[in-house]
Amino acid sequence: MKIALMDSGIGLLAAAAAVRRLRPDAELVLSSDPGSMPWGPRTPEDLTALALDVARAAAAQRPDALIIACNTASVHALPAIRAELEPALPVIGTVPAIKPAAAGGGSVAIWATPATTGSPYQRGLIAEFGGSAEVTEVPCPGLADAVEHGDEAGIDRTVAAAAALTPPDVRAVVLGCTHYELVATRIRDAVQRPGRPPLALHASAGAVAAQALRRIGAEPAPTAAPSGALTVLRAGRVATLPDAALTYAEGRILAAGAPVR
């Protein structure tokens, strides 16, 4: 089987690694356009056009399913991408894991890009799934860009700034941008308060990977031989994983798990 993933940049690594864990034998296609980053500040029309180009490049590889491994693109471009590619190609969007995070009530924070924070889309999810939880929206300006470039100082600075905006009694944090999943441990360390119960982080990679398999009628087979190839596309052209990707465990998993072509 072949699973494609798309994002503006390397935020797709977490979901791709989750697919690799579930099906080491699946061929992966990673389609991105880092030259157009960041997508968040763009108009919905501009962002949709960019996302469609990245999706078309992925679809040209004839995958069995396409994961939009980007919260911002899922918010603005998912309907357009589905309208063009489905039903021939199942398209799976990425939604912040607000529902499971809020299930236990208490204080919950959603870390997201400034464009997503306060958006009607996110506010709608909070209204629908927030329940009795006290939900705080935390904007994280610059964090996705720092993660994209492997900027260690930038990651430390932006994580610390977002942690300062997070309520001290928070019990769960929703990672509302796929890039943030690559630095989840650093986010937990920054937010965890001494004497408080262990902080729960809620990400989307595992859920979208499992949904992609369900959409094509495939079962998880984590013990399968790691035989799936990895195709990397940047702006529609065959490339290799960028150096920054290899600074993260997910990137190293993908690089080591199968030959890159």
UniProtKB/TrEMBL annotation:
The keyword Acyltransferase does not apply. Pfam families: Asp_Glu_race. Gene3D superfamilies: 3.40.50.1860. Keywords: Isomerase. This is Aspartate/glutamate racemase family protein. It comes from Streptomyces filamentosus.
